Amino acid sequence: MTGTVYTETVVHLAPEAFAQDVPYQVAIVTLEDGSRVTGRVAGDRVSIGDLVERVAMRDEVPFFQKAASQLT
Amino acid sequence: MRPVAVIAAGKTRFGAFPDRDLRSLAVEAGEKCLKNGHVSPSQVGAFYLGNFAGPSFTGQNHLAPYISTALGIRDVPATRFEAACASSGSAFFHAFSAVAGGLYDCVMVAGVEKMTSQPTARVTEILAGAGDCAGEIKAGSTFPSLFAMIARRHMYQFGTTREQLAAVAVKNHANGALNPDAHMSKVITMEEALDARPVAEPLGVYDCSLISDGAAAVILAPADCARDFTSKPVRILGVAQASDFVALDQKPDITTFPAVRRAAQKAYEMAGIGPRDIQFAELHDCFTIAEIVALEDLGFVERGLGGPWTESGATARTGEKPINTSGGLKSKGHPVGATGVAQICDLFAQIRCEAGEMQLKRHSLGLAQNLGGSGATCVVSILGNV
Fold first, then answer.
1. For residue B103, is it within any domain?
2. Is A16 in contact with B148 (Cβ distance < 8 A)?
């Protein structure tokens, strides 16, 4: 599953459940069908407009990574 | 529909009060309000309470009669309204509807939140309950992060800058320094705002409103008998509530809030005026970007120009459209459930020329905008003595 980053942020202050992950990046991704989903970013930080692909589902949360074609 | 007026207002200071419980704050605001309007508890025909998360913050539930009976208001309907940060704005809208419709002749609307008894991580978790817990929150979003994502997109689409966001914080802190009831009466510089510890990029600590305790109350009555209570009633010229998706990722465009636009349009129509006529406003600056988006959605400035307009000084207390002369949520404080009614108290004081050092020269027509969550509820109220 691939998509485009619609917006993103890096979270520094989190509830206890995610405290061990900070800082972590959250992004809203526009999928190919035009729908949007909120997920976490794995690996390199992404920016608005970046192509991303879903690399994992953990506890129903999609994890996205910059698409291979964009990696430098 | 009968014309309705606000005849009395009262509120506590906002701040962190470790030795005060939720009920004592609400009772203080309610008693001040009754005294301000020379109203006896037996005259109050219904009690409307705005509260977001009292049960989570304090363990206490069934809050409306818990507070109304402590105020000596007995037997009448006492109901709590929950609409995230717009809880007491929503209570105000529904109280207005009941008085305008002829159901009651005297209604108290109060708002309260007691937040500081919990550590920040737990507060963040409780506030996140106003988002979509099965989606965005599960993915690690917090409220600051939702507004951070709005800020990022606004910057991307319109070129809004980090400095323009900080200009909102600098202005509201300067305003709050004149407010003796503000949580944080502290002037900050642009450098301090820009260098602050990050919370959710691009937002730093000074882009975020405060975690506060506090309460506020007002009393509504039909306009034709308002002068039985006070020589200076303030008319509710327009008020409207609108709703939208809770999850940010369901909104087609996150740089504008349709609920704000709809509520504003209805309130302007009811009042028979437009955005240009508004002389001053209290806006829901839960985050600096929220004030910028509100300026645009309320029609004070064209879309995308909220940042430059703020930077130009137009929204300062000396500007053409003073915004958040109370200090706003940013500096006055944001006891979530109290905020909507507290904004009404601020308009009431300005319009009656009782705002002390905060008093504006042009003060006869004001607007309050109270936002819930990331835009799923909005209440817009227009008050005046015209």
1. yes
2. no
- B243 CB-near residues (< 8 Å, 6+ apart): B259, B376, B377, B378
Testing the interface with A: which of B124, B132, B145 to mutate, by most A Cβ within 10 A? B145
Q: What percent of chain B has pLDDT over 70?
A: 100
Look at residue A18 and tell me whether its pLDDT is greater than 80. yes
- Give chain A's domains with CATH numbers: 2-70 (2.40.50)
Q: Is residue B124 part of a domain?
A: no
Query: How many domains in chain B?
Result: 2
Average of per-residue pLDDT across B79-83: 98
Query: Residue B90 belongs to a domain with what CATH number?
Result: 3.40.47.10
Q: What's this model's pTM, rounded to 2 decimal places?
A: 0.98
- Which member of B124, B128, B200 has the closest CB to residue A9? B200
pLDDT at B191: 98
Mean pLDDT of B264-283: 98
Residue range(s) defining the domain that contains residue B41: 4-119+212-234
- Interface of A to B at Cβ within 8 Å reads 6-19, 21, 23-24, 26-28, 36-40, 48, 59-62
Residue B195 lies in a domain: yes
Adjacent-strand bridge partners of B81: B50
Closest residue of chain B to A11, computed from CA coordinates: B200
Is B135 inside a domain boundary? Answer: no
Q: Taking the CB of residue A4, how many other CB atoms lie within 10 A of it?
A: 17
